[in-house]
Specification:
- There is one protein chain.
- The protein has helices at 20-38, 75-96, 99-104, 106-122, 125-134, 137-163, 168-176, 182-202, 204-210, 213-216, 232-236, 251-256, 267-270, 291-303, 315-318, 328-349, and strands at 54-57, 62-65, 68-70, 227-230, 310-313, 354-360, 367-368, 374-384, 390-397, 403-405, 412-414, 419-428, 437-448, 455-462.
- With 464 residues, it is of the alpha+beta class.
- The strands form 4 sheets. Strands 6, 7, 8, 10 and 12 form a 5-stranded antiparallel sheet that branches.
- The chain is elongated, with a radius of gyration of 32 Å.
Length: 464
Protein backbone atom coordinates (compact mmCIF):
# COMPACT_ATOMS: atom_id res chain seq x y z
CA UNK A 1 0.00 0.00 0.00
CA UNK A 2 1.28 3.51 -0.73
CA UNK A 3 2.43 5.57 2.20
CA UNK A 4 -0.22 8.24 2.82
CA UNK A 5 1.41 9.72 5.89
CA UNK A 6 2.76 12.67 3.92
CA UNK A 7 0.91 14.75 1.36
CA UNK A 8 2.29 14.50 -2.14
CA UNK A 9 3.85 17.73 -3.38
CA UNK A 10 1.63 19.66 -5.77
CA UNK A 11 3.70 21.45 -8.44
CA UNK A 12 3.33 25.24 -8.32
CA UNK A 13 3.66 27.38 -11.43
CA UNK A 14 3.48 31.00 -10.23
CA UNK A 15 2.16 33.49 -12.76
CA UNK A 16 3.87 36.82 -13.44
CA UNK A 17 2.20 39.93 -12.08
CA UNK A 18 2.85 43.66 -12.19
CA UNK A 19 2.10 46.17 -9.48
CA UNK A 20 3.50 48.32 -6.71
CA UNK A 21 4.43 45.43 -4.43
CA UNK A 22 6.07 43.52 -7.26
CA UNK A 23 8.06 46.66 -8.11
CA UNK A 24 9.05 47.00 -4.45
CA UNK A 25 10.26 43.40 -4.44
CA UNK A 26 12.30 44.02 -7.62
CA UNK A 27 13.86 47.10 -5.99
CA UNK A 28 14.83 45.20 -2.85
CA UNK A 29 16.15 42.36 -5.00
CA UNK A 30 18.30 44.71 -7.09
CA UNK A 31 19.69 46.35 -3.95
CA UNK A 32 20.38 43.03 -2.23
CA UNK A 33 22.07 41.49 -5.27
CA UNK A 34 24.05 44.66 -5.93
CA UNK A 35 25.38 44.75 -2.38
CA UNK A 36 26.08 41.02 -2.17
CA UNK A 37 27.84 40.56 -5.50
CA UNK A 38 29.66 43.92 -5.78
CA UNK A 39 30.73 44.59 -2.19
CA UNK A 40 33.76 42.22 -2.22
CA UNK A 41 35.12 44.16 -5.20
CA UNK A 42 34.83 47.56 -3.53
CA UNK A 43 38.30 48.87 -2.71
CA UNK A 44 39.05 50.74 0.50
CA UNK A 45 42.48 52.32 0.85
CA UNK A 46 44.36 51.28 3.98
CA UNK A 47 48.03 52.07 4.51
CA UNK A 48 48.95 48.97 6.49
CA UNK A 49 46.12 46.54 5.77
CA UNK A 50 44.04 44.99 3.01
CA UNK A 51 42.43 47.36 0.54
CA UNK A 52 39.11 45.52 0.46
CA UNK A 53 36.15 47.39 1.95
CA UNK A 54 34.67 44.31 3.65
CA UNK A 55 37.04 41.50 4.50
CA UNK A 56 36.77 38.76 7.12
CA UNK A 57 40.41 37.90 7.71
CA UNK A 58 40.27 34.67 9.69
CA UNK A 59 44.04 33.91 9.66
CA UNK A 60 44.74 37.46 10.86
CA UNK A 61 41.86 37.27 13.37
CA UNK A 62 40.30 40.57 12.31
CA UNK A 63 37.32 41.79 10.31
CA UNK A 64 37.48 44.90 8.15
CA UNK A 65 34.18 46.76 7.67
CA UNK A 66 35.09 49.95 5.81
CA UNK A 67 36.74 52.13 8.50
CA UNK A 68 35.75 49.79 11.31
CA UNK A 69 38.17 47.11 12.44
CA UNK A 70 36.73 44.29 14.55
CA UNK A 71 38.90 42.01 16.69
CA UNK A 72 38.09 38.76 18.51
CA UNK A 73 37.78 40.59 21.82
CA UNK A 74 34.99 42.66 20.27
CA UNK A 75 32.75 39.59 20.02
CA UNK A 76 30.17 41.31 22.24
CA UNK A 77 29.49 43.61 19.28
CA UNK A 78 28.29 40.60 17.33
CA UNK A 79 26.16 39.48 20.26
CA UNK A 80 24.61 42.96 20.48
CA UNK A 81 24.00 43.02 16.72
CA UNK A 82 22.23 39.66 16.81
CA UNK A 83 20.04 40.81 19.69
CA UNK A 84 19.20 44.00 17.79
CA UNK A 85 18.24 42.04 14.66
CA UNK A 86 16.11 39.63 16.69
CA UNK A 87 14.26 42.42 18.49
CA UNK A 88 13.80 44.29 15.22
CA UNK A 89 12.39 41.18 13.58
CA UNK A 90 9.97 40.57 16.44
CA UNK A 91 8.83 44.19 16.53
CA UNK A 92 8.34 44.48 12.76
CA UNK A 93 6.51 41.14 12.70
CA UNK A 94 4.18 42.30 15.45
CA UNK A 95 3.38 45.45 13.46
CA UNK A 96 3.47 44.35 9.80
CA UNK A 97 3.51 40.55 9.78
CA UNK A 98 6.01 38.52 7.78
CA UNK A 99 7.35 41.35 5.63
CA UNK A 100 10.87 40.04 6.24
CA UNK A 101 9.93 36.77 4.57
CA UNK A 102 8.22 38.47 1.66
CA UNK A 103 10.89 41.03 0.82
CA UNK A 104 14.23 40.45 2.55
CA UNK A 105 14.73 36.74 3.21
CA UNK A 106 17.54 35.16 1.17
CA UNK A 107 15.27 32.27 0.26
CA UNK A 108 12.70 34.67 -1.21
CA UNK A 109 15.27 36.81 -3.04
CA UNK A 110 17.08 33.92 -4.68
CA UNK A 111 13.85 32.08 -5.49
CA UNK A 112 12.56 35.20 -7.26
CA UNK A 113 15.63 35.22 -9.50
CA UNK A 114 15.36 31.52 -10.22
CA UNK A 115 11.68 31.90 -11.14
CA UNK A 116 12.56 34.88 -13.36
CA UNK A 117 15.08 32.72 -15.24
CA UNK A 118 12.43 30.02 -15.55
CA UNK A 119 9.94 32.48 -17.07
CA UNK A 120 12.53 33.88 -19.47
CA UNK A 121 13.29 30.47 -20.92
CA UNK A 122 10.06 28.51 -20.54
CA UNK A 123 7.39 31.21 -20.61
CA UNK A 124 4.76 32.18 -18.08
CA UNK A 125 2.49 29.91 -16.07
CA UNK A 126 0.45 28.38 -18.91
CA UNK A 127 3.49 27.72 -21.09
CA UNK A 128 5.38 26.04 -18.26
CA UNK A 129 2.40 23.86 -17.44
CA UNK A 130 2.16 22.76 -21.09
CA UNK A 131 5.87 21.93 -21.17
CA UNK A 132 5.55 19.87 -18.01
CA UNK A 133 2.53 18.02 -19.37
CA UNK A 134 3.68 17.32 -22.92
CA UNK A 135 7.41 16.81 -22.45
CA UNK A 136 9.48 16.13 -25.56
CA UNK A 137 12.89 17.30 -26.83
CA UNK A 138 12.00 21.01 -26.71
CA UNK A 139 10.81 20.76 -23.12
CA UNK A 140 13.94 18.82 -22.18
CA UNK A 141 16.19 21.41 -23.82
CA UNK A 142 14.44 24.35 -22.16
CA UNK A 143 14.48 22.68 -18.77
CA UNK A 144 18.14 21.77 -19.21
CA UNK A 145 18.99 25.38 -20.05
CA UNK A 146 16.98 26.53 -17.03
CA UNK A 147 18.83 24.24 -14.66
CA UNK A 148 22.12 25.25 -16.25
CA UNK A 149 21.48 28.93 -15.55
CA UNK A 150 20.29 28.06 -12.05
CA UNK A 151 23.57 26.28 -11.40
CA UNK A 152 25.48 29.27 -12.79
CA UNK A 153 23.70 31.68 -10.45
CA UNK A 154 24.16 29.25 -7.56
CA UNK A 155 27.89 28.97 -8.32
CA UNK A 156 28.21 32.77 -8.50
CA UNK A 157 26.50 32.91 -5.11
CA UNK A 158 28.89 30.40 -3.56
CA UNK A 159 32.01 31.91 -5.09
CA UNK A 160 31.03 35.44 -4.05
CA UNK A 161 30.59 34.33 -0.47
CA UNK A 162 34.18 33.09 -0.39
CA UNK A 163 35.41 36.46 -1.69
CA UNK A 164 34.45 38.07 1.60
CA UNK A 165 37.13 35.97 3.34
CA UNK A 166 40.14 36.88 1.18
CA UNK A 167 41.27 39.54 -1.27
CA UNK A 168 38.72 39.12 -4.07
CA UNK A 169 40.93 39.62 -7.18
CA UNK A 170 43.65 37.32 -5.87
CA UNK A 171 41.20 34.65 -4.73
CA UNK A 172 39.38 34.55 -8.08
CA UNK A 173 42.66 33.98 -9.92
CA UNK A 174 43.74 31.33 -7.42
CA UNK A 175 40.31 29.68 -7.53
CA UNK A 176 40.27 29.17 -11.29
CA UNK A 177 43.93 28.18 -11.49
CA UNK A 178 43.56 25.48 -8.85
CA UNK A 179 45.72 27.26 -6.29
CA UNK A 180 43.07 28.30 -3.78
CA UNK A 181 42.76 26.66 -0.38
CA UNK A 182 40.52 23.62 -0.02
CA UNK A 183 38.16 25.64 2.20
CA UNK A 184 37.40 27.98 -0.71
CA UNK A 185 36.39 25.10 -3.01
CA UNK A 186 34.43 23.37 -0.25
CA UNK A 187 32.54 26.53 0.71
CA UNK A 188 31.76 27.50 -2.87
CA UNK A 189 30.65 23.95 -3.67
CA UNK A 190 28.45 23.64 -0.61
CA UNK A 191 26.70 26.96 -1.23
CA UNK A 192 26.29 26.14 -4.93
CA UNK A 193 24.48 22.91 -4.10
CA UNK A 194 22.33 24.37 -1.32
CA UNK A 195 21.37 27.46 -3.35
CA UNK A 196 20.42 25.30 -6.33
CA UNK A 197 18.35 22.96 -4.18
CA UNK A 198 16.63 25.56 -2.00
CA UNK A 199 15.88 28.23 -4.60
CA UNK A 200 15.49 26.00 -7.64
CA UNK A 201 13.96 22.72 -6.54
CA UNK A 202 12.51 23.02 -3.05
CA UNK A 203 11.24 26.60 -3.10
CA UNK A 204 7.95 26.80 -1.19
CA UNK A 205 8.82 23.61 0.67
CA UNK A 206 11.51 25.56 2.52
CA UNK A 207 9.02 28.19 3.70
CA UNK A 208 6.32 25.64 4.51
CA UNK A 209 8.24 22.82 6.19
CA UNK A 210 11.87 23.76 6.79
CA UNK A 211 11.78 27.34 8.09
CA UNK A 212 10.77 27.52 11.78
CA UNK A 213 9.64 31.12 11.44
CA UNK A 214 6.39 30.06 9.78
CA UNK A 215 5.54 27.94 12.81
CA UNK A 216 6.00 30.48 15.57
CA UNK A 217 4.92 33.63 13.72
CA UNK A 218 1.45 33.42 15.27
CA UNK A 219 2.98 34.10 18.69
CA UNK A 220 3.89 37.62 17.54
CA UNK A 221 0.62 38.31 15.70
CA UNK A 222 -2.41 40.01 17.24
CA UNK A 223 -5.54 41.71 15.95
CA UNK A 224 -3.58 44.90 15.20
CA UNK A 225 -0.92 43.19 13.07
CA UNK A 226 -0.99 44.20 9.41
CA UNK A 227 -1.38 41.09 7.30
CA UNK A 228 -2.31 40.35 3.71
CA UNK A 229 -6.04 39.78 4.00
CA UNK A 230 -9.07 39.14 1.84
CA UNK A 231 -12.06 41.34 2.63
CA UNK A 232 -14.61 38.56 2.81
CA UNK A 233 -17.52 40.91 3.56
CA UNK A 234 -16.92 42.82 0.37
CA UNK A 235 -15.79 39.89 -1.73
CA UNK A 236 -18.50 37.41 -0.79
CA UNK A 237 -21.51 39.60 -0.06
CA UNK A 238 -24.54 37.67 1.19
CA UNK A 239 -24.68 35.29 -1.77
CA UNK A 240 -20.98 34.49 -2.21
CA UNK A 241 -18.67 35.26 -5.10
CA UNK A 242 -19.40 34.70 -8.76
CA UNK A 243 -17.83 35.14 -12.15
CA UNK A 244 -18.99 38.18 -14.16
CA UNK A 245 -21.68 36.40 -16.16
CA UNK A 246 -24.69 38.07 -17.70
CA UNK A 247 -26.57 40.04 -15.11
CA UNK A 248 -23.51 40.14 -12.79
CA UNK A 249 -21.07 42.21 -14.81
CA UNK A 250 -21.53 45.57 -13.15
CA UNK A 251 -20.93 46.22 -9.51
CA UNK A 252 -24.40 47.63 -9.10
CA UNK A 253 -25.98 44.44 -10.47
CA UNK A 254 -23.90 42.29 -8.15
CA UNK A 255 -24.73 44.36 -5.09
CA UNK A 256 -28.43 44.28 -5.97
CA UNK A 257 -28.35 40.49 -6.00
CA UNK A 258 -26.12 40.20 -2.91
CA UNK A 259 -23.07 38.94 -4.83
CA UNK A 260 -19.63 40.09 -3.71
CA UNK A 261 -16.93 41.88 -5.71
CA UNK A 262 -14.74 38.77 -6.08
CA UNK A 263 -15.19 37.49 -9.64
CA UNK A 264 -13.49 34.18 -8.79
CA UNK A 265 -10.81 34.65 -11.47
CA UNK A 266 -8.17 32.82 -9.46
CA UNK A 267 -5.47 35.36 -10.34
CA UNK A 268 -4.54 35.79 -6.66
CA UNK A 269 -3.94 32.04 -6.36
CA UNK A 270 -1.99 31.79 -9.61
CA UNK A 271 0.59 34.42 -8.60
CA UNK A 272 1.16 33.03 -5.09
CA UNK A 273 4.69 31.60 -4.78
CA UNK A 274 3.60 29.18 -2.05
CA UNK A 275 0.38 28.11 -3.78
CA UNK A 276 -2.23 29.15 -1.22
CA UNK A 277 -5.60 30.83 -1.67
CA UNK A 278 -5.62 34.02 0.38
CA UNK A 279 -9.43 33.92 0.33
CA UNK A 280 -9.26 31.01 2.76
CA UNK A 281 -7.90 33.34 5.44
CA UNK A 282 -4.46 33.72 7.01
CA UNK A 283 -2.33 30.59 6.61
CA UNK A 284 1.08 29.83 8.04
CA UNK A 285 2.49 29.26 4.54
CA UNK A 286 1.81 32.91 3.58
CA UNK A 287 5.02 34.96 3.37
CA UNK A 288 3.21 38.31 2.96
CA UNK A 289 4.82 39.09 -0.38
CA UNK A 290 1.55 40.84 -1.39
CA UNK A 291 1.69 39.60 -4.97
CA UNK A 292 -1.94 38.57 -4.54
CA UNK A 293 -2.67 42.22 -3.71
CA UNK A 294 -1.13 43.28 -7.03
CA UNK A 295 -3.09 40.59 -8.85
CA UNK A 296 -6.43 41.61 -7.31
CA UNK A 297 -5.72 45.31 -7.82
CA UNK A 298 -5.00 44.62 -11.50
CA UNK A 299 -8.38 42.91 -11.87
CA UNK A 300 -10.18 45.66 -9.97
CA UNK A 301 -8.51 48.31 -12.12
CA UNK A 302 -9.65 46.51 -15.27
CA UNK A 303 -13.21 46.43 -13.97
CA UNK A 304 -12.91 50.03 -12.73
CA UNK A 305 -13.89 48.93 -9.24
CA UNK A 306 -12.22 50.16 -6.03
CA UNK A 307 -8.97 48.51 -5.02
CA UNK A 308 -8.49 46.84 -1.66
CA UNK A 309 -10.43 43.61 -1.96
CA UNK A 310 -7.13 41.97 -1.03
CA UNK A 311 -4.90 44.33 0.91
CA UNK A 312 -2.56 44.86 3.84
CA UNK A 313 -4.82 45.39 6.83
CA UNK A 314 -5.43 44.17 10.35
CA UNK A 315 -8.12 41.95 11.79
CA UNK A 316 -9.40 44.90 13.79
CA UNK A 317 -9.68 47.03 10.66
CA UNK A 318 -11.59 44.31 8.83
CA UNK A 319 -14.05 44.26 11.73
CA UNK A 320 -14.44 48.04 11.68
CA UNK A 321 -12.25 48.81 14.67
CA UNK A 322 -9.19 51.04 14.93
CA UNK A 323 -5.75 49.54 14.40
CA UNK A 324 -3.32 50.33 17.22
CA UNK A 325 0.32 50.45 16.16
CA UNK A 326 1.79 51.68 19.45
CA UNK A 327 0.87 49.35 22.26
CA UNK A 328 2.71 47.80 25.24
CA UNK A 329 4.03 44.88 23.20
CA UNK A 330 5.50 47.16 20.55
CA UNK A 331 7.06 49.43 23.16
CA UNK A 332 8.38 46.34 24.95
CA UNK A 333 10.36 45.48 21.83
CA UNK A 334 11.31 49.07 21.02
CA UNK A 335 12.78 50.03 24.42
CA UNK A 336 15.52 47.35 24.61
CA UNK A 337 16.08 47.71 20.86
CA UNK A 338 16.91 51.41 21.22
CA UNK A 339 18.95 50.83 24.37
CA UNK A 340 21.13 48.08 22.90
CA UNK A 341 21.56 50.03 19.66
CA UNK A 342 22.79 53.09 21.57
CA UNK A 343 25.16 50.97 23.65
CA UNK A 344 26.55 49.30 20.54
CA UNK A 345 27.11 52.63 18.78
CA UNK A 346 28.81 54.07 21.86
CA UNK A 347 30.97 50.97 22.21
CA UNK A 348 32.12 51.22 18.61
CA UNK A 349 32.64 54.98 18.77
CA UNK A 350 34.75 54.76 21.93
CA UNK A 351 36.90 51.77 21.07
CA UNK A 352 40.55 52.25 22.05
CA UNK A 353 43.33 51.88 19.47
CA UNK A 354 45.49 50.15 22.08
CA UNK A 355 44.61 46.98 23.95
CA UNK A 356 46.57 46.00 27.05
CA UNK A 357 46.15 43.30 29.65
CA UNK A 358 48.21 42.34 32.69
CA UNK A 359 48.27 38.93 34.30
CA UNK A 360 50.26 38.13 37.40
CA UNK A 361 52.72 35.26 37.29
CA UNK A 362 51.47 32.78 39.88
CA UNK A 363 54.48 30.52 40.18
CA UNK A 364 55.65 31.89 42.54
CA UNK A 365 53.30 34.66 43.66
CA UNK A 366 56.20 36.70 45.05
CA UNK A 367 59.94 36.44 45.71
CA UNK A 368 61.80 37.97 48.62
CA UNK A 369 65.15 39.32 47.43
CA UNK A 370 68.40 39.39 49.42
CA UNK A 371 67.92 43.05 50.33
CA UNK A 372 64.54 42.24 51.88
CA UNK A 373 62.42 43.76 49.09
CA UNK A 374 59.54 41.83 47.51
CA UNK A 375 59.37 41.12 43.78
CA UNK A 376 56.27 40.23 41.74
CA UNK A 377 56.33 39.21 38.10
CA UNK A 378 53.72 40.09 35.45
CA UNK A 379 52.97 39.24 31.85
CA UNK A 380 51.91 42.35 29.92
CA UNK A 381 50.16 41.76 26.60
CA UNK A 382 50.01 44.67 24.17
CA UNK A 383 48.05 44.90 20.94
CA UNK A 384 48.18 47.81 18.52
CA UNK A 385 44.69 47.95 17.00
CA UNK A 386 45.40 51.23 15.23
CA UNK A 387 46.18 51.40 11.53
CA UNK A 388 49.54 53.09 12.12
CA UNK A 389 52.75 52.24 14.04
CA UNK A 390 53.01 53.23 17.70
CA UNK A 391 55.85 53.63 20.19
CA UNK A 392 54.94 52.88 23.81
CA UNK A 393 56.43 53.31 27.25
CA UNK A 394 55.43 51.37 30.37
CA UNK A 395 55.03 53.12 33.72
CA UNK A 396 53.91 52.12 37.18
CA UNK A 397 51.65 54.06 39.54
CA UNK A 398 49.68 53.36 42.68
CA UNK A 399 52.55 51.85 44.66
CA UNK A 400 54.88 54.61 45.85
CA UNK A 401 58.53 53.65 45.80
CA UNK A 402 58.05 50.55 43.64
CA UNK A 403 60.46 49.97 40.74
CA UNK A 404 59.38 48.59 37.34
CA UNK A 405 61.92 46.41 35.55
CA UNK A 406 61.33 45.37 31.93
CA UNK A 407 64.89 44.27 31.29
CA UNK A 408 66.58 46.13 28.47
CA UNK A 409 63.30 47.21 26.92
CA UNK A 410 62.74 50.93 27.40
CA UNK A 411 60.22 51.47 24.64
CA UNK A 412 58.02 49.12 22.67
CA UNK A 413 57.42 49.67 18.95
CA UNK A 414 54.40 47.98 17.42
CA UNK A 415 53.33 47.93 13.81
CA UNK A 416 49.59 48.00 12.95
CA UNK A 417 47.84 44.87 14.20
CA UNK A 418 51.03 43.67 15.91
CA UNK A 419 50.87 41.97 19.30
CA UNK A 420 53.59 41.34 21.83
CA UNK A 421 54.02 40.02 25.37
CA UNK A 422 56.48 41.43 27.88
CA UNK A 423 57.73 40.03 31.17
CA UNK A 424 57.87 42.78 33.78
CA UNK A 425 59.12 42.64 37.37
CA UNK A 426 58.09 44.99 40.13
CA UNK A 427 60.27 45.39 43.26
CA UNK A 428 59.03 47.05 46.42
CA UNK A 429 60.51 47.70 49.87
CA UNK A 430 57.65 46.65 52.10
CA UNK A 431 57.06 49.01 55.02
CA UNK A 432 56.21 47.65 58.42
CA UNK A 433 52.52 46.90 58.95
CA UNK A 434 51.73 46.74 55.25
CA UNK A 435 48.71 44.57 54.22
CA UNK A 436 49.03 41.26 52.36
CA UNK A 437 48.46 42.90 49.01
CA UNK A 438 48.13 46.36 47.45
CA UNK A 439 46.78 47.68 44.20
CA UNK A 440 49.10 48.70 41.41
CA UNK A 441 48.39 50.36 38.05
CA UNK A 442 50.35 49.73 34.87
CA UNK A 443 50.25 52.64 32.42
CA UNK A 444 50.83 52.13 28.70
CA UNK A 445 51.86 55.57 27.48
CA UNK A 446 51.92 56.27 23.71
CA UNK A 447 55.03 58.28 22.83
CA UNK A 448 54.51 58.29 19.07
CA UNK A 449 52.25 59.48 17.61
CA UNK A 450 51.17 62.16 20.05
CA UNK A 451 47.61 62.60 21.14
CA UNK A 452 46.72 58.98 21.88
CA UNK A 453 45.14 58.17 25.22
CA UNK A 454 47.07 56.45 28.01
CA UNK A 455 45.82 52.94 28.76
CA UNK A 456 45.69 52.01 32.45
CA UNK A 457 45.40 48.44 33.69
CA UNK A 458 44.91 47.63 37.37
CA UNK A 459 46.48 44.65 39.08
CA UNK A 460 47.58 43.48 42.54
CA UNK A 461 51.00 43.39 44.20
CA UNK A 462 51.41 40.50 46.66
CA UNK A 463 53.47 41.52 49.72
CA UNK A 464 53.54 38.27 51.65
Amino acid sequence: MPDTQYQARIPIYPRAVKGRFRNLKWSVLALAYGVYFLLPWLRWEREHAANQAVLFDIPGRRFYLFDLLVHPQDIFWLAALLIILALLLFMVTGIAGRVFCGYFCFQTLWTDVFMLIERWLQGDRAARMRLAERGGPRATALKGATHGLWLLVAFATGLTFTLYWANAPDLVVAFFTGQAAFAAYATAGFLTITTYLLAGLLREQVCTYMCPYARFQSVMFDKDTLIVSYDAARGEGSEGRSKPVRGLRSREERQARGVGDCIDCGYCVQVCPVGIDIRDGLQYQCIHCALCVDACDTVMDGLKWPRGLVRYTSENALEGRRTRYFKPKTLGYAAPLVLITVLLVLGIAHQTPLDASVSQVRQPLFVQLSDGSIQNSYEIRLHNKAQHPVVLELRLTGLDGAALDTGRIERVSLMPEQRTTLLARVRYDVPAGAPRQQGVVFEVVPVEPEGMDVVRVESQFILR
